[in-house]
Specification:
Helix content is about 20%, strand content about 35%. The chain is α+β, with helices and mostly antiparallel strands and about 550 residues long. It folds into 3 domains: about 130 residues, Immunoglobulin-like (Sandwich), CATH 2.60.40.150; about 140 residues, Sandwich (Immunoglobulin-like), CATH 2.60.40.150; about 240 residues, Rossmann fold, CATH 3.40.50.410. The strands form 6 sheets. Strands 17, 18, 21, 22, 24, 25 and 26 form a 7-stranded mixed sheet that branches. Strands 9, 12, 15, 16 and 27 form a 5-stranded antiparallel sheet that branches. α6 crosses α10. The longest helix has 15 residues. Belongs to the copine family.
Length: about 550
């Protein structure tokens, strides 16, 4: 899928900066750097705030945000001596801070200490970064117009009116938003309702001027001008709420010539509905946490872990495919989970103490708490688990899907957009319990969860593609369709030589869409916003 970039604005401020100037206070500015192919590249620089140790910068940085990438940022604060906006050799370094864009977005506001060279604290200096989503796809508007007592432009019949709605661009040019149908032979026309996105109506700026022109249709294209009026979406909502949504339709030529001229009729806004559509960032910035669970295949087909040909072989110098996939996906998910604890499960092994086969055991062998501290904790649990289990079979994944689904179902009952679950299944073969797996996925499609399956090794994964609903709707064995496509299947070998970033990109690209689809279907708004997703707010912006 094409990556979907959201635009995020970053605003910066600092507190308690070091004072490097002997006679006055520092003159700080901040440089923003972004990592690209391992190199730090300067994206831009704030203005210089003169003589301040607690500057609040007015310069706003706009950056593209991709959920499926780790986007590393670095902020460097300088006491500036050269001309504003340019770095110069004499600038004094007052401290820097590194983080990911995901961390800023997930917390909305990040305050961190500034560090000098070699990781020393720069006194009590801190930098605060505030993020705001400006992607602007905020929904769509349903409008319905009618008119009264329009001027009659035709000799032997009444006018045939139609209406054109334009938005006024920044250069004062007019951009057509919508043209109604023609209502024949009628001075009191009622036009059909229509829908437009908020971005095409007013570029998501509710105070942007809108211009309406009313014409008498002429089949040769020489339409007669009846009249016009100007308004804004903000005004439309206000007058509609107050029950006075009517504008005089004025012909400026007549107005100039005739002092007694009032109007050429009136246009009435008969209906206005605003459907709010939320973005992935709206949910994340509303405090929605993403919980990450990894499930690892410990079936015998992986090969004896002590043998270097095994998919589970631990080479001290080169992580195996299981570890590569786990780390590249987990690194991204961890930014969106405040406690940084991840559930790690195994399936298809005989486990101590009785060595019975289990299809949903905790790889840290703590059935009361299967969570590990951070991605590193999962890696260590996996490495410690290998020598203690006996690889066995079959490859049954339905029990683990059902286990995560039970947790997601409890979350669903809260009726809030607060927790979403991602299950990463790493397997070396086609699942044995295909019917049960399809049933479990169809049930899970109604819950706040997504499933990512990474096929490790060289098995024939053709049958696994069925689970990924890209080629049509997945159905349970009884024929019940999945409510939404929640499975993404990726064979690791196709990305074997790609960077971890490319793997994560491929694996996680569909997650934002799946999150939005789930909450929109449930009619749940991001936390902190009252109007549910997709709900109509008559004439009012939530």
């Amino acid at each position: 899928p094409a990556p979907c970039a959201s635009k995020v604005e970053l605003r910066l401020s600092c507190r308690h900066l070091l004072d490097r100037d002997p006679l006055t206070k520092s003159d700080p500015s901040v440089a923003l750097l972004q990592q690209a192919q391992g190199q730090w590249v300067q994206v831009g620089r704030t203005e210089v705030v003169r003589s301040s140790l607690h500057p609040v910068f007015s310069k706003v940085f706009t950056v593209d945000y991709y959920f499926e990438e780790v986007q590393r940022l670095r902020f460097e604060v300088y006491d500036t001596h050269g001309p504003s906006g340019f770095s110069c050799q004499e600038d004094d370094f007052l401290g820097g801070m590194e983080c990911t864009l995901g961390q800023i977005v997930a917390q909305k506001k990040v305050t961190r200490p500034l560090l000098l060279k070699f990781g020393r604290n720069a006194g009590k200096s801190t930098i605060t970064v505030i993020a705001e989503d400006i992607s602007g796809n905020n929904g769509y508007v349903e409008l319905s117009f009618r008119a009264r007592k329009l001027d009659d432009k035709d000799l032997f019949s009444k006018s045939d009116p139609f209406l054109e709605l334009f938005r006024v661009n920044d250069d004062q040019g007019l951009q057509l938003v919508y043209r109604t149908e023609v209502v024949k032979n009628n001075l009191n026309p009622v036009w059909e309702p229509f829908k437009v996105s908020l971005s095409s109506l007013c570029s998501c700026e509710e105070t942007r001027p809108l211009k309406c022109l009313v014409w008498d249709y002429d089949s040769r294209g020489k339409h007669d001008f009846i009249g016009e009026f100007t308004t804004t979406f903000e005004e439309m909502q206000k007058v509609f709420r107050e029950g006075q949504a009517q504008w005089d339709c004025v012909n400026p030529k007549y107005k100039q010539k005739r002092r007694s001229y009032k109007n050429s009729g009136a246009v009435v806004l008969a209906d206005l509905k605003f459907h709010r559509v939320y973005s992935f960032l709206d949910y994340i910035m509303g405090g929605c946490q993403i919980h990450f669970t990894v499930a690892i295949d410990f079936t015998a087909s992986n090969g004896d872990p002590r043998n270097s040909c095994s998919l589970h072989y631990i080479n001290p110098y080169q992580p195996n495919e299981y570890l590569k996939a786990l780390v590249s996906v987990g690194e991204i998910c961890q930014d969106y989970d405040s406690d940084k604890r991840f559930s790690a499960l195994g399936f298809g092994a005989r486990i101590p103490p009785k060595y019975e086969v289990s299809h949903d055991f905790a790889i840290n062998f703590n059935p009361e708490d299967d969570e590990c501290e951070g991605i590193q904790g999962v890696v260590e649990a996996y490495q410690n688990c290998l020598p203690r289990v006996q690889l066995y079979g079959p490859t049954n994944v339905a029990p683990i899907i059902s286990k995560v689904a039970r947790v997601a179902a409890a979350e669903e009952r809260t009726g809030e957009a607060s927790q979403y679950y991602i299950l990463l299944i790493l397997t070396d073969g086609v699942v044995t319990d295909m019917a049960d797996t399809r049933e479990a996925i169809v049930r899970a499609s109604r819950l706040p969860m997504s499933i990512i399956i990474v096929g490790v090794g060289n098995a024939d994964f053709t049958d696994m593609q069925v689970l990924d609903g890209d080629d049509g709707v997945l159905r349970s064995p009884r024929g019940e369709p999945a409510l939404r496509d929640i499975v993404q299947f990726v064979p690791f070998r196709e990305l074997k030589n790609a960077s971890p970033a490319a793997l994560a990109k491929c694996v996680l690209a569909e997650v934002p869409k799946q999150v939005v689809e789930y909450y929109s279907h449930r009619g749940l708004a991001p936390r902190g916003l009252d109007v549910p997703a997709g709900e109509v707010s008559p004439g009012c912006t939530p």
